[in-house]
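Lab notebook, bench 4. Still working through the backlog of constructs that have no structural model yet. Next entry is a single chain of 342 residues. Request: give me the C-alpha cells for it.
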Amino acid sequence: MSTYRIALNFEDGVTRFVDCREGEKLLDAAYRSQINLPMDCSDGVCGTCKCRSETGTYDLGDDYLEDALSADEAAERLVLTCQMRPTSDGVIAVPANSSVCKTAQQKIATTVVRVEAHNDAAVVLELEVDGGATPAFLPGQYVNIDVPASGATRSYSFTTPPEQNRLGFLIKKQPGGLMSNWLAHAKPGDRLSLTGPMGSFYLREAARPLLFLAGGTGLAPFLSMLDVLAQKQSQQPIHLVYGVTRDEDLVLVDVLEAHAARLPGFAFTTVVADKASSHPRKGWVTEHMPQDLLGAGEIDVYLCGPPPMVDAVRTWLADKGVTPVSFHYEKFTPNLVLKESA
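Model written out:
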C-alpha cells in the first residue's frame, strides 16, 4: 500500500509532516499524527476544514455540499481535508495558527561536525542529527537555532536537501553578533538545538522556467532547492543571479559550479555592488537580469535577500511590467528572518 508524505504549512510558518495512507482522508491522517486540523462536521457539510493544496495530486470525491466547497474554489485547488484523499506527496496551506491546532514545534538535537569560515563574510555550519534521524522540510525553509548559553535563537535556511542526516547552513558573520561570537569558538562535537522547520518560502513544483535572485547569504535556500531539482532531474531552464556587496562576500561559487555541471539548464550570474571591485559584473542584481527568461513572461521568480534588495527587485519588476506566474520572496535582517511570499 502506498503512503504519501504531506506537508502541513500553517499560517505562522510552522510546518509539520504527516504520512497519509493510500485512500485515507487527510484529516484522519493528521489526527492519527496528533495534529488537530480545523474541523466541525467532518462530513463535507460545513467547510470549516477548508485549506489550499499548494502542490500534489488528490481525489476530492463528490460527497460534499456545494456550500462547503464551490466548483470555483475546487478549481483554485481549495480542498476539504475531511474529504481529500492524497494521491501523491504534496503541500497543504492551513489557514490557521499552529498553536490553535495544538501542534507543537519540533525540536531537533544536533552535533556540530564542521565549521568553516569564508573570510570575514560567512560561516558554513554543518550539523549531524542525533540518532541518525533525517528531518523532513521543504527546500527553502528555515529553522531557529538556539544560541548556546544566551537564551536567544537565530533563524537560518537549510543549504542541504530534505531527508538527510547532515544539515547545512550558510551564516553571515556579524561583528559582535551572538551567533557569530559563538561560531568563532565552535568546534566539532559541540551541541546545538534546532526548532522547525518553518517558512512559506519554499520550492513549488517546477512547471516552468525559474529565476532565482539571491543577496549575500540569501544564497542558502537556493542551494537546497538546486539539490532537490537535481535529484528530480529537472529539465526546466533555471537562472540564479547572486549579488553581493564586496568581492569577499562572494562565497560557495564552487558549489554553484558543481550544480551547473550536473543540472541541465542551470546557469548562474555573480554580481558585486562595490564599484572598486575587480569583478567583471558590477552593480545591482536588477542590472543583470536574464532578459531571455523575463521576456517570455511564463516564469516563476524566487527572491531572497536583505529588505532593501527585495524591495528594489519588486519595484524593478513592477516598473518593467514583468508579472511572473508566481513570485515568492523572503527578507532577512541580521537577527530576524521576515518570511513572505506573493
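Notes after review: The chain has a mean pLDDT of 93. The chain is about 15% helix and 35% strand. Flag for follow-up if needed.
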